[in-house]
């Protein structure tokens, strides 16, 4: 897909999210981690090839996480629930890294300055933060809500998807990560 179509897809996604709320599910909060039996979409399928750029400038091929459990989070600086979720994911990254679990949070903001402004004041982040202004994440995963987290097993298979976020989702996300890691 060319860059023009990528930008259009990202703009359409941003518009839909703005109209529908970035993470609401109707009556109250995030959808929570959904097991494969109750979730359509990518659950049970291999994570598609995705390359993004870490804020450090280093290129990240998501396939390089094979052999480890990965939580791939798609977020944006303009999303209220994302602002709640990112510090929670950072805490999980800090505590679970030694158990073979990595967290990669990919911003779909078009402007890097918005990402930098959002992250300022937090200090050091334990999770890896990347920026995807070209829309590879939106193009390949097509998340319905912001944020959306994909829990990927050591073989690169998506095992759970958490659409949206409310603070009550945090224990379930951690439980799913530990289950997939065999802990």
Write the layout of secondary structure elements.
Elements: H1 3-20, E1 33-34, E2 51-54, E3 59-61, E4 69-75, H2 80-96, E5 101-107, H3 112-119, E6 128-131, H4 136-141, E7 148-152, E8 158-163, H5 169-181
Parallel strand pairs: 4-5, 5-6
Antiparallel strand pairs: 1-8, 2-3, 2-6, 4-7, 7-8
Strand order of the largest sheet: 1-8-7-4-5-6-2-3
Q: Outline the biggest β-sheet.
A: 8 strands, mixed
CATH-defined fold name: Glutaredoxin
Helix-strand topology string: HEEEEHEHEHEEH
For the record, the count of structural domains works out to 1
Explain what the structure shows.
With 183 residues, the protein is an alpha+beta fold. It has a single domain, classed as Glutaredoxin (3-Layer(aba) Sandwich), CATH 3.40.30.10. It is 34% helix and 21% strand. An 8-stranded mixed beta sheet has the order 1-8-7-4-5-6-2-3. A hairpin with a 5-residue loop joins strand 7 and strand 8. The longest helix is centred in the N-terminal third of the chain and has 18 residues, at 3-20. 37% of the residues are buried.
Task: List the defining traits of the structure above.
single chain; 183 residues; alpha+beta; 8-stranded mixed beta sheet; 21% strand; globular; disordered N terminus
Gist?
With 183 residues, the chain is of the alpha+beta class.
